[in-house]
Amino acid sequence: MKKHLYNILEYIIKLESNIAFYPSLISLVGLLFAFFMYYLESWGVSKYLVENAPILVINNIDTARDLLTTFIGGLISIMVFSFSLVMILLNQASSNFSPRLLPGLISNRRHQVILGIYNSTLLYCIFTLVSITPHGDKYQLPGFSVLLAIIFMTVCLAAFIYFIHSISQQIQVGTIMDKIYDKAYERLSQLIENEKTIETKFPDTSNWKSVVAKKSGYFQDVSLNSLAHFAEEKKLKIEIVQIKGTYVLKQLPLFKYSGNDLDNDAIDEVLGYFNFSKNELVEENYVLAFKQITEIALKAMSPGINDPGTAINAIDYMTELFALRMKKRDTSYLFDEDDNAYVSIKTVNFEALMYNVMAALRTYSKHDVIVVQKLFMMLTYLLDHADAFDKIYRKIIIKEIKNLYQDAIANQKNDADLAVIENSMAKLKSINSSDFNI
Question: Which residues contact 255 (CB under 8 A, 6 or more apart)?
Fold first, then answer.
């Protein structure tokens, strides 16, 4: 029962990133409220208000119809324009920055709520208009419901103004990088906080039984709560051998386990905890933040855009994230009540992460001495903070400094630019002479 509850909760959390989730939910609320008001009108709420508070009731049939018809037409126009703005935002983000940004932009909750407000008000107005029905030789006029429609339309206009402001902010690369950074920082901080401080030793898994993937796809996430409950129930130790965000081919090992053999039903149950999807979110995989910010920097350095300032800003964000990443261990485990590790999770280690980012930046930025200087500043900052966490990080950073120096010198022809690079390297060697053998 607990495993199914974990699966349902995680499914709902993932459903939130769908652009139709909140609009559908709020639209349903608007529809139900329209029926609720129809029920109140059948009990004579408008008649009561006409007698006691006539200012709260629209008491003219033509005025009510004209208002509701105008609201319906206006809301359809606003919705079309708003959806067009969203498409423009997504198209510009994809072409100017990176297609990887689209899932994060689509999952913007504020935009979803605003679109839901439009749709719920539209449905409310339609059903209120339909409720104006003949009653004998007169019409049953839901006067109070029409007044509420005016209020809701006013809210829609305010939401539309805010939507225009929000879209104009969202389309700026600084805002995009800031949100990516905030989500990654929060995710990394959470992982660091949940790490055990005890020394962890996990058994050798080379001879463990393997379970292969039954389909190909991007390994997005795994339900750790369900997996941990399963391992504890079956008295197993499990190692997840694939890294989140990688493309897993069919028949490749997905996880290994030690303990009693699992039957086909149990294996199918465990495989159900692994989520394969093309949509990745930074909230679930912090490594995606490094990929996205790196791709924004690379796009900025392309000849078509040629925006070194954006690349420099991206390096600033990555400096902070790398400094935080050094606080995290390269291995992740789930522990039982006795602090024994029984689930091992394979993660991207610091060396691979640093190399992948720097290899891309060196390839596209080695000709720009300003960006090269900024990269030296980033690596120098990380080198100064490496000893506080793990000495192995120091060796990794020095290796990347040497690679950067080699590429930068080979791609500069101006003597002044070469002098700047040599000067930066000389300062590093003077402070850390024992670590450099160039």
Answer: 210, 211, 238, 239, 240, 241, 242, 270
Tokens of 311: 């690349």
Stated pTM of the model: 0.78
How confident is the model over 6-64, as pLDDT tens digits? 456 555 556 666 677 888 889 899 899 888 888 887 777 767 766 666 666 777 778 88
Query: Cβ distance 182 to 317 under 8 Å?
Result: no
Q: Give per-residue pLDDT as tens, 332-378.
A: 777 766 667 777 888 888 888 999 999 999 888 888 888 888 998 89
The domain spans of the chain are: 2-171, 182-193+290-324+349-435
Contacts of 119 (CB under 8 A, 6+ apart): 23, 26, 27, 30, 79
- Residue keyed to tokens 């891309």: 360
Residue 403 CA from chain centroid, whole number: 32
Residue 371, CA atoms < 13 Å, CB-side half-sphere: 28
The stretches of 248-348 forming alpha helices (DSSP H) are 264-271, 287-300, 308-325
Distance in Å from the first CA to the final CA of the chain: 61
Q: How would DSSP label each residue in 381-437?
A: HHHHHHTTT-HHHHHHHHHHHHHHHHHHHHT---HHHHHHHHHHHHHHHHHSGGG--
